[in-house]
């Protein structure tokens, strides 16, 4: 059986930012992310993907379409987003993702569930990145 928790813990959650890209790691604080939240006057964040629901690989074009749907959904909500990707360490598994500012934990889990995800990454300013199962 695949140990999803181990895989998620051994993933770098990369964020594309105009001032320089940075990574988020489960169980660790992220000063760059805290600064970004403070800059926008927000207290919570989530890192969500729509790709490969339930960790079942899809074709590139299917994942691209799902990612576009996630981005459109988040934009309708009026939330601040940054492009990103989850890169499994020691593997070629990469999933296009979004860092969403201002999305609380329960909303993040609901969004992940709506897009068929096993889990989402969440956090608050001053805290550590945490994995929340959908």
Fill in the keyword field for this structure:
134 residues
How would you portray this structure in words?
- With 134 residues, the chain is an alpha+beta fold.
- It has one domain (4-133).
- Helix content is 31%, strand content 31%.
- It has helices at 4-9, 31-39, 60-76, 105-114; strands at 11-15, 22-24, 44-49, 80-88, 94-101, 119-124, 130-133.
- It has a seven-stranded antiparallel sheet, sandwiched between helices.
- The two termini are 19 Å apart.
- The model has no long low-confidence stretch (mean pLDDT 96).
Chart the SSEs and their pairings.
Blueprint: H1 4-9, E1 11-15, E2 22-24, H2 31-39, E3 44-49, H3 60-76, E4 80-88, E5 94-101, H4 105-114, E6 119-124, E7 130-133
Antiparallel strand pairs: 1-2, 1-4, 3-5, 3-6, 4-5, 6-7
What is the string of helix and strand elements?
Answer: HEEHEHEEHEE
Unreliably modeled segments: none
Oligomer: single chain
Q: Counting H and I runs of at least 4 residues, what is the number of helices?
A: 4
What's the number of structural domains?
1
Q: Report the biggest beta sheet as strand number plus sense, adding barrel if it closes.
A: 7 strands, antiparallel
Question: How many runs of DSSP E, i.e. beta strands?
Answer: 7
Beta-strand residue percentage? 25-35%
Q: Helix- and strand-based class?
A: alpha+beta
Q: Largest beta sheet: what is the strand line-up?
A: 2-1-4-5-3-6-7
Rounded Rg = 14 Å
- What is the terminal-to-terminal distance? 19 Å
The rough form would be described as globular
Mean pLDDT: 96
């Amino acid at each position: 059986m695949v140990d999803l928790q181990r895989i998620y813990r051994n993933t770098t959650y990369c964020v594309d930012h105009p001032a320089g890209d940075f990574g988020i790691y489960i169980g660790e604080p992220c000063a760059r992310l805290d600064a970004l939240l403070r800059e926008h006057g927000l207290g919570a964040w989530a890192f969500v993907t729509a790709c490969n629901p339930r960790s079942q690989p899809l074709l590139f074009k299917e994942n691209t379409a799902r990612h576009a749907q996630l981005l459109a959904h988040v934009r309708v909500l009026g939330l601040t987003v940054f492009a990103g990707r989850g890169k499994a360490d020691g593997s070629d598994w990469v999933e296009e993702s979004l860092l969403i500012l201002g999305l609380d934990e329960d909303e993040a889990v609901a969004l992940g569930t709506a897009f068929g995800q096993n889990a989402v990454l969440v956090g608050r300013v001053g805290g550590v990145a945490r994995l929340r199962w959908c």
